[in-house]
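Question (not urgent): is this output format expected?
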Amino acid sequence: MKMVLKIIIVIVLLLVVLTVLGKILPAPKPPAPGNIVTLPSGTKINTFTKGEGKPIVLVHGLPGSANDWPEFVEELVGKGYQVTWYDRVGYGHSSRRDADAKFTMQANANELDALIIAMGLESPALVGWSFGGGVVQSSTAARKAETPFIVLLAAVGSSMRIEGKRDTMKAAEWALRLPVLGGPLAKASITARFAEKMPSRWVDNQRSLLLMPGSLDTFRGEMKALTPSDLSPSDIKTPTLIIHGTKDKMVPYVVGVNTSEEIKGAELMTLDGIGHMLPLSHPTEIADAIVSFFPEKTVETP
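Got this back:
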């Protein structure tokens, strides 16, 4: 019994020391920024662009960053797209919102529309993942006749219901900051949350990006403001491809089914036994699906 008590005391002391060090030591270094674009509002957006051909813009989820897309970007570039992806406001190297600002999908959609104009992108296709799919559904660009198509990946939809207490990541924030143990705990947490194996580089970068000042505040603000029922996808006339996994633990598959029924002419691609992390777990399959559904929009590169 005394031995057990000693072990418990040692563990508690170790956690206390690591917690203190986590507050004192610098956070892990995040990935480098890309090109900063300033919107007319003064908001700065960290962007990346790669490839030549038809423009396409990628919108990440909640939380997230431009770091979510590299494998998928390479697939799209190889199929003849010019790909633009960016940190949504509040994440990565983009501006942070004021504490009293709106953390809604519509606020993000307004910034997406402004970014397209500021960058001079001509009628880009849009791809939104998870919360980013709600951003795309809320955007004016998704409703323009010249927009060739939109793709919604495991996207939130108007039929989605959020029940119970909303995640604030308080415990996760403590774990993320722990030196030595922070990395393994982050990997264990992500694996448990999504029930999927993620690339190591993504897990490590995700930890560093979440620990950047204001990132977790943005996460909490967006979770608090998240009201999928505000979405109005039924007035979207743009050709739409919806891709959703049947084992999605974050946005249930039925939400994708319902969204495909709300958007006239939308096509639903079902991924049996697949979860929420589609751009990371199945980048090739998603890129191939886009080419298959919109073959006239792409040109294979040699």
